Amino acid sequence: MHTKDNSILMPYACHSNLTKGRFYEDEALVLGRTEYQRDRDRIIHSEAFRRLKDKTQVFVFQSGDHFRTRLTHTIEVAQIARSISRALNLNEDLTETIALAHDLGHPPLGHKGEAVLKELMTNFNGFDHNEQSIRVVTVLEKKYPSFNGLNLTMETLEGLIKHNGPYRKDKKIPHFIIQIMEKFSLELQNYPSLEGQVANISDDIAYLTHDFDDGLRENLFTLNDLKSIALIKSIIKEIESTYSNIQYDILIHQLIRKLVSYFINDIICNSQEIIGKNYFRTVEDIRNHNDSVIKLTSTANDHMQEIRYFLFKNMYHNKLILDKLSKYSVMIKKIFYLFQENISLLPTSWRNQNGHSLNTMTLEKKSRVITDYIAGMTDNYLKMEYMKFFKEEY
Q1: 10 DSSP 8-state letter
Q2: CATH for 1-107+128-319, options being 2.40.50.140, 3.40.50.920, 3.40.50.720, 1.10.3210.10
């Protein structure tokens, strides 16, 4: 039995009672839940989701309690995504689901950890955290007796697979995505649903605003440095003119708050205008459109690019941060090669795949299993595993 979504959805939104279904036949819904609610709940109850709390966003092994982790980033993405989705009368449950799952495949040590795994897997079809998120929800999570993975709906899978938009023609499609395509027509060359597009742009808004808070906390730059960014300078001026003696920490919170609101409001208004100029009647019209529908105005996009440039220069490419991440990333390399040489050092549950011993498999398949294991580690677990085998303090 399919139940209906609670909100009044636009005809071109994803309606859960019209879902294209799941890869495997599943139990009937109960208690009035919708298909996308079940997807969301399965993600929240997954082990991969819980591990996000101890995975690096930017700062690794940080002593402060208030720095973002991969989990808090994910929650902020979901909040922004729901706000935009509700204003546009889209399916909030699906939007939130995609947002909550978008970083499940992120390895320890943030983007540095991803770069190391990509290098280690160069000869074995590489590594990409977005594609790893698909592996997590279709293969690696093992909670159900009848199937591996979480058996999510096609609409959720589509949003994750097309997290960065349509697949380029020259991009190699991973085998596990090809398997999904054998049952569902994902039309990789087309755009995802509006819910998928909202989750995607909400990711950018979240990290390009909350990272200012963490960067200031770490003293990577000052408030005066931020005033070199036109949009931020105008927001700070507005806050200070309204509250002449505002405390520094409250000022920072209000800055981030107003920055997020600026981008959310711009996206909603601009997307409504794009929708108004077209005659979208179904979600297929959205997928077949020649451009994304959920987007910033050119002015707001320029502001976002200025923010992106500042953060990459002063934070993401900061030498102290990169040096620290490079030092710790050696742990990933050494553990990877150790397991390659002696597969029996892996936990018992990882030494067999679908009833077959890893010892009987090719080096490529062994390496993929090792990568799956390492990618699932938290920063702290990586450190513990390293010290267990190499007896070195990091």
Answers
A1: -
A2: 1.10.3210.10
Look at residue 393 and give its three-state secondary structure: coil
pLDDT in tens, 264-302: 999 999 999 999 999 999 999 999 999 999 999 999 999
Domain boundaries in the chain?
1-107+128-319, 321-390
The answer to whether 118 touches 371, Cβ cutoff 8 Å, is no
Cα–Cα distance, 192 to 189 (Å, whole number): 9
Contact 141, 150 (CB under 8 A): yes
Per-residue pLDDT at 58 = 79
Q: Where are the beta strands (DSSP E) in the chain?
A: 352-353, 356-357
Average pLDDT, the chain: 92
CA distance 291 to 360: 47
Element (H, E) at 286: helix 283-288
3-class state of residue 142 by DSSP:
strand
Tokens of 301: 């996009």
24-74 confidence digits (pLDDT tens) = 999 999 888 999 999 999 999 999 999 999 988 877 766 667 778 899 999
Q: Tokens representing 291?
A: 């451009």
Q: Which two tokens stand for residue 248?
A: 């520094």
pLDDT at 64: 65
Distance, in Å, from the CA atom of 204 to the CA atom of 201, rounded to the nearest integer, reads 5
Q: What is the pTM of this model?
A: 0.95
Q: How many helices (H) and strands (E) does the chain have?
A: 17, 2
Helices (H), 121-193: 129-135, 154-161, 175-181
pLDDT the model gives residue 1? 42
Residues 69, 106 contacting (CB under 8 angstroms): no
Furthest-apart CA atoms within the chain: distance in Å: 71
